[in-house]
Design goal:
Layout lengths: L49 E7 L3 E8 L4 E5 L5 E7 L1 E5 L4 E5 L3 E4 L5 E5 L3 E8 L4
Antiparallel strand pairs: 1-2, 2-9, 3-8, 4-7, 4-9, 5-6, 5-8
């Protein structure tokens, strides 16, 4: 038996019907935003990380951060839930109850207003995806 989830279990069943309308789920109308060149998009400041906005829409804001080794973002919090994704490098991610060693390819979800800090252990690019409330 496999521990891998099926497409239906992760909400991606192409044959699924819309439960409310009894028709094929999904739509052909909408947008897909493809962003490239996130790593190295900006250079960090000499003494602190530099941020750049990657994407903004009504439900999501994505910000990329470039850190040089030793750069730090002291204790802070985001008003909305966020996803932190390390695209390259490694950071020490401080939370109220523990410290994590986040590495390339790892993702961390934070609930709204959870205090945290970030220290780059090597040159690092990470994204912060803010999950905004639907209008």
């Amino acid at each position: 038996m496999s521990d891998d989830p099926t497409a239906a279990e992760v909400g991606l069943d192409p044959g699924a019907e819309d439960r409310e309308h009894g028709e094929r789920a999904g739509t052909d109308d909408g947008t897909a935003t493809h962003v490239t060149g996130i790593i190295g998009r900006v250079e960090p400041f000499p003494d602190r990380p530099r941020a750049s906005i990657v994407h903004v829409d009504e439900t999501t804001k994505i910000v990329a951060f470039e850190f040089a080794e030793g750069h730090e973002l002291p204790d802070h919090a985001a008003f909305h839930p966020v996803l932190i994704q390390v695209l390259r490098g490694r950071v020490e991610f401080g939370l109220p109850d523990r410290t994590l060693d986040l590495r390339t390819g790892e993702v961390l979800h934070l609930t709204a207003k959870l205090r945290h800090r970030v220290l780059a252990l090597e040159p690092t690019t990470l994204t912060v995806t803010m999950l905004l409330p639907r209008p």
